[in-house]
Each structure stands twice: as structure tokens, then as C-alpha cells.
Amino acid sequence: MNAELTPQQARERFRAGLRAPTAGYCAGWTQANLIALPRSHAYDFLLFAQRNPKSCPVLDVTEPGATAAELFSGDLRTDLPAYRVYRDGELVEERDEVAELWRDDLVAFLIGCSFTFEAALLDAGVPVRHLDQGRNVPMYRTDRECRPAGELSGPLVVSMRPVPAAQISDAVRITSRYPAVHGAPVHVGSPAELGIADLDSPDFGEPVEIRDGEIPVFWACGVTPQAAVMRSRPPLAIGHAPGHMAITDARDADYLVP
Amino acid sequence: MNAELTPQQARERFRAGLRAPTAGYCAGWTQANLIALPRSHAYDFLLFAQRNPKSCPVLDVTEPGATAAELFSGDLRTDLPAYRVYRDGELVEERDEVAELWRDDLVAFLIGCSFTFEAALLDAGVPVRHLDQGRNVPMYRTDRECRPAGELSGPLVVSMRPVPAAQISDAVRITSRYPAVHGAPVHVGSPAELGIADLDSPDFGEPVEIRDGEIPVFWACGVTPQAAVMRSRPPLAIGHAPGHMAITDARDADYLVP
Lengths: 258, 258
What we know:
homodimer, 258 residues, seven-stranded antiparallel β-sheet, four-stranded antiparallel β-sheet, 6 helices, 21% helix
């Protein structure tokens, strides 16, 4: 069972060539978004994260050129199942490993991922529709601007999960206890107030069914910083392929606040 | 009454030349530590803060050369009651204002201050001895190293408040709800385990009385990042004079987590 693998075991499989989405792997261990940037672009990114912590919760940052992180004892260049490579802000290729592309000046950021709070929602009996439907979560550009930082600016991007009205309070309470993975919702109920015209036409991911009695709930999304970075057109950026996350040595429980 | 001043009113008095410690000013408004550094040293500082959030809770960061911050609508060069100026890591002078010294490449950091959680402790009936005794809080270097970042490294420095045994639980619970101002204690009870030889001989501040039935409780302290910065000997650094804080436009309640 993938859920029972340790992070080390899962990373060994990915290093050996397995290419698979990491949802369901290593239950209880924290999965993270990866974005690696030249040191020259790292300050703006870290400052953008400081100013927009709900959309960009930084879990760890490496020294320039390092291939492991405090929270990731594997090899960041080979131990994710798939990578995306961007040059001047454009996606140029998707690869199984990026060993030859890693540069001495690359700084890797590990960013919290909503997998952590989705596990907590499921444990509390709150449905997570895109998981039920086997889809990617729907994500939307909003009309709210992030606080800019240096070269980085852009709109807040949110993910949406429909929640039965009776469980909204639980969903808010539970996710607010995970500030390191986007935390409490940024909005409950009214897409129009966020400038979202049509929930059936997400900007990223796939639409999901909203049933009678369910209310759309919006959380800050990790696509926000990624989109802002790409707009600044760094010469090189390396990220995980969507859904193919870095499985860290941290426990989801480490990010639970009282 | 100083407690009833708005931040704007207090800042006007300091700008006009009043030099006074800010304890007791502007009840309910958040006070912050100031440290301004050249842009060349800002990344290491921001990364040190990301890696050591309990001792270095960043509330706001300015653009290079800016004289106001999102959380501080006054003038950072004149609206604190007193400043300290450091060159190559050495204190060179204490001044009422630093207008002529401000450079186009200075980045100002506002860092959370324990005044916020001390007000919450007092509200809950937990005594704060150094306030009762009219002293500065006692602070100690520990034998725990911070996670270094670039040029910045050094030991964790803690502040100590004696708490009656029956109220330890309250003190932990209350301060844990303020992660942006050092949060929960890093240690309760045993100075020796932190490498502290003698509570009566603090490394900074003044000793306080520990009464029968009280237990020393240790919180991460804002002196930690300041000491690490000075060891890296930046050409210029400007900070607040101890106890003469930046009074921000944020409310203490803004930093309360559920």
C-alpha cells in the first residue's frame, strides 16, 4: 500500500523512475510544492511569501545549490516523481529528474500543500468533492491583488471545495488549525464577491459538482506564488509537476496549531 | 493617559522630540521591534527569520528606501522615541531620529514584541514579574543554536518570566495563541537544560524575583535575531533603542489565532 510507505521508501521508488501522482502516498507525512529559483530571484520570492502567507506558506528554504533540505533528506533533483522546467517564465519541458539542470545558485523552496488539510477534513467527515470525483481541485483567479514584492505581483488564486452548509463551521475550524498549509478559507459563499464569474469554468484544474445545500468555500492556493514568479520571467525555475509532490520528512501533525 | 493615545498621536509626540519608553502606550495597538539593514543583508535576515520564526516573528518588511510600512503609516525615521545606530556590528550612537542616516537601500523589518502577549497574560491574571518590579525582562543566551542562514548564526536567546505552578497551563495556552509574537514557551522549568547556569545573572536585562511555588518559563526572544545580525557586521544597521518601540497601526487582536 502506497499509504504505508515511509517518505524514504517512496522517494527511492521515484528516484528509480516511478512517475505517479503522490496523492495517497505516505499517510500522515507532509507533501510539499517545490519551486527552485536562482539566488538572484530568491529574495523577492521569500518577501512575497512573507507578505502573502496564506497563499504562500513556506515550510523550508535551502542554501544555494543544496540538493537536500532540513525537511527533505532525499535528493531534491531526483526524488520527486516528475518536474517541470521553466525558462524565462515559460514551461519548456517536463522531466523525471533534473540532476543536470541543478545549478550552484538555485535556492529551493518547499511550500505547504492542501493535501495536509484535506486529510484532516476527511478525518472529520467533511467531504472533499474533487477527491470523490477523481479530479484535480478547481482553481480560480480572483479580482484581489496580492501584496507585491519586488518583481513579483499578481492576483490571489483560490481553490474551491463545496461544503454542506451544516459542515461549513467544521471546515473553517479544522483548516484554520493548519496555517502552514493555507489555513482558514479566505471566503465562504459568494464567488461574485471574489470576481469569479462561473464556477464551472475554473482557470486551473477541473470543475466539480456542487450539490443542493452545499456552499462553495474558497481557500488561498499555492498556484498564486507560482503564477507571480512566472510573470517575473526568471531565467530558470524548476517546480514539481502538478500533483507530483515532494514527500517530506515532516508530519502533518507538526503543522497543527492548538 | 498614554494608554488612550492613538498610534498616530503617539508617533506625533515622538516625532516632536519626546523620548520615552513605549510600555503602556496605546493600549491594544501592537508595538514592534525595528531593524533596518542594507538590501544586501536583507535576504539572509528574512531567511533567518523564516528558519527561526519563534525568535524572529516578522510582521512587516518595507521596500528598499521606503520610510513607511504597510503596518506603520508614520515615518520610520522619526516616529520612534529613540534609535540605535550600528556600524560594522558595533553600536556607535543613540539618537532621537535617523532622517539623515536613512539610505535608499535600507530595508526595514518590523518584528513582533512580547508586549503583545504580556498584555494578554495580565488580562488573564497571570503575573508578569518584571513589570511588577519595574525592570527590564531578564534574557539569557542558551546552548541551543539557531538554524543559520547565510551569514547569520548564533544561539537562541530566551526571556524568562516566573509563573505560579497553577498558572503554567494558562501561560502556555495564552501565549501559544500569539505565534506572531514568539508564541508558546520554548521551555518550562529547567534552566540547566537550556545551558543557563544562574537565573540571577541574565545576559541581558535585569534579574527578577522568583517566589516560592513559581516556575521559570522561557520564551524565544527578539534579541536572538539582533545578536545574529550584529555578528555578521553589516556596514549599517538601525534599530529602536531598547523599550522604545515602533507603535504600529495593527491591533494586538489581529495576531490572535483561534
